[in-house]
Every structure is written in structure tokens, then in C-alpha cells.
Amino acid sequence: MQFPAMRRLSIATAHAFLLVYATTSAPSFESVKRCFEEVREQRADFQDIPMVVAGNKLDLASSHREVNIEDVSEWVYCELPKLRCMDILISVVIYGD
């Protein structure tokens, strides 16, 4: 990811986060995971910040999907169990499927 100083400033001053990945790109989903970890590391109040994870390019997903909804669900609900326990608002936006 480019511009680390700008990214740190954005994370430090944000009131909410929208993390968007392309359903047609597994690397974009991995990038969302890394961005989330940056937020978690840099914001002591990350539990209080609204966060939305959204999949994009669903119009292309039927023939080019690389990120399955099961993978997203597993990450949100299985890989991040401690977050649910801390009442973090994590929404998974899913259209289609």
C-alpha cells in the first residue's frame, strides 16, 4: 500500500471505516484484512468505530469470483471472535448470492 503517512493520518482521524474488496480479486480481500489490522493497531478506540466490510463487482462475480462469501463470513465471524466479544460494529454488506 502506498502513502503510509497519509494512511496513518486517515486512520487516526476517521469516524468510521468502509473496507471494500473486489469479489473478483482475492488480493483485494487480503488487503482489506491488512487494513483492518492497521486500524486495530493504530486506534486504541477501534472497538467504538463503526466499520463496514463490502464486496464490490458482484455483476462480474458469477463468472470471475475469487472471493467466496464463505471466506468473508469465516474471516468476520471465525477469525475475529474477540471483536464480537468487544461489541465492535462490524457489518458485512452482501448483495446477490
Could you characterize what this model shows?
By secondary structure, the chain is of the alpha/beta class. Helices cover 49% and strands 16% of the residues. The chain contains 5 helices and 3 strands, in the order αβαβαααβ. It has helices at 4-13, 26-42, 58-64, 69-77, 81-85, and strands at 17-22, 51-56, 90-93. It has a 3-stranded parallel beta sheet, covered by helices on one side. The longest helix is centred in the middle third of the chain and has 17 residues, at 26-42. The model is unreliable at 84-97 (pLDDT under 50).
Question: Top keywords for this entry?
Answer:
single chain; 97 residues; alpha/beta; three-stranded parallel sheet; 5 helices; 3 strands; 49% helix; 16% strand; disordered C terminus
- What fraction, in percent, of the residue positions are helical? 40-55%
Number of helices: 5
Distance between the termini: 30 Å
Mean pLDDT: 77
Along the chain, the helix and strand elements come as HEHEHHHE
Spatial arrangement of strands, main beta sheet: 1-2-3
User: What fraction of residues sit in β-strands?
Assistant: 15-25%
Give me the secondary-structure category. Answer: alpha/beta
- Tertiary shape: elongated
Largest sheet: 3 strands, parallel
Radius of gyration: 14 Å
- Unreliable runs, pLDDT <50, ≥5 residues? 84-97
Number of strands: 3
